[in-house]
Structures are given as structure tokens and as C-alpha cells.
Amino acid sequence: MTSNVRVAVIGIGNMGSTHARTLLSGSIPGAELTAVCDMRASMEAWSREHLPVSVAFWNDPEELMQSGTVDAVLLATPHKDHARQAISAFHHGLHVLVEKPAGVSTREVQEMNDAAAAAPESVFAIMYNQRTNPVYRKLRDLIASGELGEIRRLNWIITNWYRAQSYYDSGGWRATWSGEGGGVLINQCPHQLDLLQWTTGMMPSRIRAFCQFGRYRNIEVEDDVTAYAEYENGASAVFITTTGEYPGTNRFEVTGDRGKIVIEHDRLTFWRLREPEPVFNERYQGAFGHPECWQCDIPIEETETGHPGIIRNWIEAIREGTPLIAPGAEGIRGLTLSNAMLLSTWEDDWVTLPIDEQRFEDHLARRREESSFAGDAAGQESMPADMSNTYK
Amino acid sequence: MTSNVRVAVIGIGNMGSTHARTLLSGSIPGAELTAVCDMRASMEAWSREHLPVSVAFWNDPEELMQSGTVDAVLLATPHKDHARQAISAFHHGLHVLVEKPAGVSTREVQEMNDAAAAAPESVFAIMYNQRTNPVYRKLRDLIASGELGEIRRLNWIITNWYRAQSYYDSGGWRATWSGEGGGVLINQCPHQLDLLQWTTGMMPSRIRAFCQFGRYRNIEVEDDVTAYAEYENGASAVFITTTGEYPGTNRFEVTGDRGKIVIEHDRLTFWRLREPEPVFNERYQGAFGHPECWQCDIPIEETETGHPGIIRNWIEAIREGTPLIAPGAEGIRGLTLSNAMLLSTWEDDWVTLPIDEQRFEDHLARRREESSFAGDAAGQESMPADMSNTYK
């Protein structure tokens, strides 16, 4: 492909407008921002003022996608619109880069994935920019290469998402079942829920979770979660998150039968066993002995490329067939964890994966009926902005 | 009281013989070791060889306690004998220092506590020597004095209890329902389960736990535990332990509404909020702001006095009425947590505290019936030795 990919950004809130500027900056070779789209009329004036005249403004995503003026769309709309808009884009033969989370429920995201599978010419990616974070890339490398051995335990304490009540009060849609379809899991944690499965290559077989709704703030949705998960190989995991504490913690500990890795404060430490634990256990005949263990500070030398890295990779995939860092179809995995944690809490019971989508949607529908937010969310800011502005 | 307290150590395995030597060393003013007792005939020869002739050897605890030759007994027998022996001691008007854990089930420990309450002249203590560890004393101080504010979350990852199969194979009673009545919770974790409640002054209202039995080793009992607990004030806790991993972790994180404390690697760090989080939340009107936070390295200047410290304190309490560091009646608290975690797993459901003792005992009785260990445990080593030899 020699000509530039004509890209439209749909949804130009905080996040979408940042992506638009990235595309205009020249840092994405082979891509050209030719259009933006936002259903909020006020954004047309913003667009006229801040974007070159070469960038067309559209008010209706469907009309834009039908127009034949773009090859690819970057969806930075509220996540509950992602699936519907992506499906439409695939029908029009467009490439899609969707912001995270992929959607609200796995059912709609599965429909999006099905539509993507039926449009194999369309390159479908998701904005999991934390997959470019070298510390998590290194963890994935150490696991995939077998350095850590078979995984036994995952403990992620990710409680550094502090939000005051004023944050929630800043938009009527925020932290409502109708507006967002969830709380800390859907708004703040999509990266960690993806990294939990992406770095390890494992999805749990069942989950038992304990969400607390409005524990710290006057909101409808969960602002505190403790989840326990079990995996087919016998491994177990704990995932703890909240928006109500300060300063919070971000500590991811992974134990394998060849040692332990801890990621905290942007450092990765590997306690490496000289011989695998099962080998030691087999030969050892004493009482309180243990395998020889080396504390290794692992160099982190790559640079995080962030959102521009994901956009660049998506464009390269379109133009040159480069493998995607974050294939769009993988967005369902982190969302499955999120949906399962809510469902387990609502039913006060185990949830086996894959989850029963109908049960999840039934529960969610009841909560949406009673939700304080009755709008259609067309006027809301693009929600993924929250993470981008604050994620470290 | 001017005369020395005449002390007998009952059960002279690893732990009991250590206590006997401590009493003989002169480091416990006002106490005199006048007798030891062990049901294993072989220990009489050991006693003759290693102890002064002034120390009488008894084979039967009951006869010793009836003899009128001692004022106080230190029970270092297998923990399933603790309650029965302590009750007998109280009936004979003796003071009691019992090793941890207090017993196997809360029912028998409650009976022990009732007998102690009916013998108010007897000074009853428990060997929670980790209560003399200055890092946990400091944590307790910071919580009790209000520095940390109201507690919101406790996360204790205590997975550094590595035991190879050869450890379990070294005694037929080890890690059996009949021999020990539990695994990592009853043998390795009594200190942490006590410190969890002692440092915070809080017991949970309900627990949902996930024990795995023989996950890493060929044993009957639990060698892997993840427990979630909720407290009346809304706080939650996670407790994670295992004997199957190396190098493991010992990290205790406590979050309050005035900051966060982490104890790891024998250091205590306090992230102190300049104003309480609820006060900040009330006044703050922005989006992503947070309370001002100071990272404080807290000096740990006291010295850990360990087992001798607990014995000394018990003797001082007997002689001078000094308040006990570890009142014996408090042993039921950590054991309640342990019993609740097993019961929750067995019933695959929540357990509300105080636990239903009958249900716990019924479950345990069924497992004892099928237990591989049929002995009466009279020939076993004193189990608490495991912790003392290896803690930290």
C-alpha cells in the first residue's frame, strides 16, 4: 500500500482529540487524518478552530462511514457505543482501532468480534497502550520464554485510582449503570485486566468476586473490588482495586515454579530459583531447606510508545501486514474478567468462564432501569480519557 | 510474691526443651524450673542427661499437676492437647502459659477460656511471641493512637513458609487431620492470624475463604489459602498463605483513611495523609486531585524479646500483676479465623463470625475418620517447634 491511510477519529473528547493531534503531528507515517466526527454540535466549532481545513467534521458516524472518504476509523466514543460503531465500520470495509474498554458486555463485544471475523480485510486493533509498557512486555517475555516456569499465583493490588466525589459529580453519566455500565472495573482497570491475561497467556476457569458499590462515594457502581480466580492448571489469582484510597498501591506479583516476579514502582524484580522448585522438592531430604534463589534486577531498556505506538502499529498492520500489538478481538478477554467479577458479586456465587452473557445482561438491565442517569450519553466526554490523563 | 514461681514445662520437644533451657538460664527472674513432663518414655533419659537433678521428670501431666510441686505450667504439647491440659491446670489452681495455636477447634478453646475465667487467681497467657516484634508493636501503636485513622483494608501476603515433601514425611502426624487438625493455617500461621486481629483491634464479621488441600504436597490438609474477610465498619481484608512456594512474600499492607502502612522486609513505611481522606474529599472540587501525602520511614527502636519476653512477662504477671502481653483468652481469636477459613472452604460459602462450632467439628470429625494418621500423637514432636525454628 503506497497511499496514506485516510483516518477518521470518531468521538473527539479528551482522548479522541489527543489522537487527532497525534495523527496531525506527523508521528504516524502513512496515516492522514481526514475527518473527525462527534455527535455533540459544539464540537464542530472546536474542530473548525483547532484542526486544519483538510479535516472534515461529521456529526453522524454512520454517514461518515458510508461516505467513502476514509479507510479507517479510530473509535474514541463512549465504550457502550464501540461495538455498534465498529460493526458498522466492518460492514463498510473500514479498518478499526477501538478505545478500551471494548464495550460494556461481552455479548456486544462478541458480536463486534464476529463482525470483524467476517471482514478479514479490515485490520482490527484495540488501544491497549499499556502493552507497550516495557515492564509488562518484559514480564510477558519472562513467562512466555519459560524463565518463570509454570505459573502458580498472581496477586495484583491496584488501588492507586483515587477519585474524589467531585470527579464523579462532574458528569451525570459518570459511575452510573446507564452511563458507564460499571465503575472501577470498566473505567479505570481495563489495562490491568488485559495485562493480567496478556502477560501470562492465561484466562481463569472460574471467579469469585466481592464488589462493593458506592462504598466510598455517592455512586451507583462498584468502587471497590476483591476478586479471587482459579485457573485450569491449578494456579490462583487475587485482584484488588478501588478508587477510594490514597495513596494506593500498584504491585503485581507473579509466582511460578521457577521463582517469583514483582513489579512495583516501575521496577521488575525476579527472584530466580537455580533449579525448579519441583526438582528441588523431589531430591531434597531435609526438614526446612529450600531451593537456591537469586534476586535479579531485570533491566528494562525498551521505551514505552503509548497511544502513538498503538496507532503506528495499527497503520503498519494496514499498510504492511505488521502483526498487531493488540488485536481487537482480544478486547473481550479483559472485559470477560470485569463482567465475571460483577456477575459473581450480583449472584453471590462462583462464575465459571466463559460467563453466561444473558445472566450478566439481565442483571445489568435491571440496574440500568433504576439508574440515576437517563440520558443517551451523547453529550458525555469520551470516557477513556480518564485513564489516559492519569495512568502512569 | 517473694518466693520463686515453680514452673513445669509439659512437652519437651524442640520447643519445650528450648523453654526449659530458657528457664534454667537465669534470664527469667523469679522463676524456677522444678519439673518437666513428657509422655514419651525416651524423654526421661534425655531429661536426666541434660537437666539438673533439681528438675523432676514426670511422665503424666495429670499426676504432675496434682502433685503440688509446681505453681505454673508451660504447655508445649501438641496443640490438640492444650485445652484439656490447661483446663486441668486451672482446676489445680495453677498458672498457665500455653503454646500457640491455642487448640484445634474454637469449641475446646472456649472451654479452656471458660475454665480460666472460673479460676481468676490463675494467670493465663499464650506464647504469641511475635507480639514482642517491634515492627508489629509499632503498627499496633499507629493504629491504636489514631495515626492511621479508620481502617479500610488489610492485605497480608504471607507465602514464605516453604516446606518440601520431606518435611511432611518426617512425621506421620504431620499435615494430617488427626495429627494436627489442619495445615498451613494451624501450623505455620498462628502468629499472623493473631497479629491480624491484635495489631488492628478488629475481628471480621464474615469470611469467604478458598483453601486448597494437598495442592503442592502429598498431604491431607490445606497448603494453600486465599481468604477474604469483611468487617463491621466496612473494611475488607485478604489473607494469602502457602507452604508450597519459594521464595514467597511476607508483606502486610494496612490502609486507613489517614494513609497506608506497609510492613515488608522488617521495615515499616507509613504513607501519611496530611489531612484525612474524607476531609479532603469533602472540600475538593477538582477532577483528579488527591490529599497531600508524606512517605515516612518509621523508626523501629525496640528490641524483640521473643519467647523469653513472653515467659518473663507471664512470671511478672504472676508475681507483680504486670499486664499480660498475650492474655491466654485471646488465643481463640486467631483460631477463629483459621477455623472460619476451613469451614468456608468446606461449605463453599460465607461463614459469619462467631462461627458455628458444631458445624466445624462435624466437618473435622469426618476428615479425621479418613485420616492417614491413626496414632494418638503421644509420640510426636511438639508441633509449635516448626514456627519457632523457622520464623522470619
UniProtKB/TrEMBL annotation, chains A, B:
Residues 367-392 are annotated as: Disordered. It holds the Pfam family GFO_IDH_MocA. One of its GO terms (molecular function) is nucleotide binding. Residues 136-261 form the GFO/IDH/MocA-like oxidoreductase domain. InterPro entries: Gfo/Idh/MocA-like_OxRdtase_N, Gfo/Idh/MocA_Oxidoreductase, GFO_IDH_MocA-like_dom, NAD(P)-bd_dom_sf. It comes from the Bacteria. This is Oxidoreductase. It comes from Paenibacillus bovis.
